[in-house]
């Protein structure tokens, strides 16, 4: 993929959610769950990159802290935490969806072996991320 910039991260986000949907359709729930969360991670990192001004030397701690899979930490690094709190107070669906998404972890790719539990988790996560009215990816893009 080459240089990892805002456009590349957005493309990765789109690709990962597309992959997750294909995996979900084909009953590959563990992979669907993992890649769906990864789509949000990439979208948040694209937002962090968007906040970096062209030709500015980035803050070293921001760069170091951005190398995380923790979605709550990435929301804060993207400068979206206050907006998210405000929007969740105003919209219970967004709050419900974020409560599903924030618990995603790359570590779950190793622990989700219960097929029925994983099926529900994957379905819930993908819905929370992609809902056309209240989904987390739409919210990130809007803000």
Architecture overview:
The chain is mostly helical. It has a single domain, classed as Four Helix Bundle (Hemerythrin (Met), subunit A) (Up-down Bundle), CATH 1.20.120. It is built from eight helices and no strands. It has helices at about 5-25, 30-50, 60-65, 70-75, 80-90, 90-100, 115-130, 135-140. The two termini are about 25 Å apart. The mean pLDDT is about 90.
Secondary-structure map:
Layout lengths: L5 H20 L3 H22 L9 H7 L4 H7 L3 H10 L1 H10 L13 H16 L5 H7 L1
Helix pairs in contact: 1-2, 1-7, 2-4, 2-7, 2-8, 5-6, 6-7
For the structure shown, list the relevant keywords.
globular; 143 residues; mainly alpha; Four Helix Bundle (Hemerythrin (Met), subunit A); 8 helices
Question: What is the makeup of the main sheet?
Answer: none
| Domain module tally | 1
Distance between the termini: 26 Å
| CATH level-3 fold name | Four Helix Bundle (Hemerythrin (Met), subunit A)
Shape: globular
CATH architecture tag: Up-down Bundle
Residue-averaged pLDDT, rounded?
Answer: 90
CATH class: Mainly Alpha
Helix-residue proportion: 55-70%
Given helix and strand content, the structural type is mainly alpha
How many distinct beta strands?
Answer: 0
Rg calculated over all Cα atoms: 15 Å
What is the H/E order? HHHHHHHH
Low-confidence stretches: none
The total count of helices amounts to 8
Amount of beta strand? under 5%
